[in-house]
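help with this record:
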Amino acid sequence: MKKKRQTPRPGPEPHTTEKHQLAPEVEMADHTMETFTVTYPARMPTEEQIQFGTLTAAHHKLVNESELIKSPFNPTRADVGELDQRVCITPHKAWYSMRKYVNFVMRAASPQHVYALISWLYWPEELPPPAKRSLDQVSPKGGKCQYHGAQELVASNYLDILDVLIFAGKADVVEWDEAGDYISAGERKYYWRQTFCRQTQALSKIREHCVCLGPCTPEIQMYICDNPDCKLWLHKICMLEYTLSEALKNLDPEVDTDAEILKKNHRANKPLYSGILAGKTEDKDDGPPKIIIHDLRREHKKSWQEWLKCPACKTKIE
């Protein structure tokens, strides 16, 4: 959602209780200055406690002064209702005395004072770092991962109350469920596929692809297996490594399994073909992708082409 930046928006913070200053002070109809604030009480009872009536007096007060906000984001790989939460909006009386609209979470004190309760989407680099650094984390100071795309946003359950007059326009942001055909980065606009939960300070799970069970990085092209019973999304590097590993087994003359280079590669945790074979993929508009393989052995130097194949079902990639 695009808006004119008048005050810094609240960012994710690793706290159990947060209080965000949400909207610039505005003059109400009676000429008093009002500022709305959303708080996330740490001792808020669960919905189960509310449903079964096991509440303390303090809990009753919190429930009476709070509102259950259903998240507009329903990610396919997050728990149902994970982003739903009870929040307190103050001043309570001023907020709930305003007229409520049905289609949006909006309230109005007058035609000149209309407010919207919104949920933020963040750029990945705006997120805080996880408690334990992950291998694909771009920087120790932020939550962006290597698989996050240039046009990718992360949905959250951080809330804000904004005067509708500060909105400059709208940005179309769609959920990408990573199902069906692969869409290249150039064909995709703003999108989100993960959520960031305020309570857990964690990203939702990312969908796993390929034989490596890695995520899709939109700026790096992927292929889809043509086998209708497979349809696996494949990383180019994984197909390249598979093809070179298979070519190593079929070399003529074959490589001695006791060769020192194989032992060195194994000890160094390198692919066994390292230093023996090298390959580069070749994509042409008028044909399927292929790999050019080079035999690096001094006495057997040669090059040839092979089809790229799905490592899972061995189907040629057309």
Remarks:
- Helices lie at 47-52, 57-64, 92-97, 236-249, 260-267.
- Residues 22 and 72 are 19 Å apart (CA to CA).
- The longest helix spans residues 236-249.
